[in-house]
Amino acid sequence: MTVVPAGGLEPNGEELRRFARRPLRGRRLQLIVDGAEPVDVPPVVGEALAEVVSILGRGRPVRVMAENVELSTGEAAAILGVTRPTVVKLMNDGVLPYTRPNSSRRVALHDVLAYKERRSRARREALDELTADAIDMGVYDEAIRRGRQPSDDQLGA
């Protein structure tokens, strides 16, 4: 189910941003439809709603899907922010498991999200390691003092 079209349609953007600033996480929510009796919203639904509202409040599109849905290579590429041929290569290399129900490849959303998380974690770890190396060599502190511009000798020139 698409909540907001990919174009980011905002019928009342300011109203949505004001609503998004309200703290929803960890709060008891009730749903009232057309003046009927309030119905308690289960906490798991409230947390999902808080996440959706937060994303919409930043003007980003949201698509709600079951995690066991299977995606095309193009859909997986859009989620990962890569090209379709890159997704095919990840499948061929055994990084992303897939099925072939017909002539096209399908990949489970949960596998795409798990790969995305592994990739993000590996990038964070690499950046942490590079930062630690820069600190050990004194480059980091010197770059801060110089307004984040390393000197020529620090660059190896």
UniProtKB/TrEMBL annotation:
Residues 71-120 form the Helix-turn-helix domain. Coiled coil: none annotated. It holds the Pfam family HTH_17. It comes from the Bacteria. InterPro entries: DNA-bd_dom_put_sf, HTH_17, SinI_DNA-bd. NCBIfam families: excise. This is Helix-turn-helix domain-containing protein.
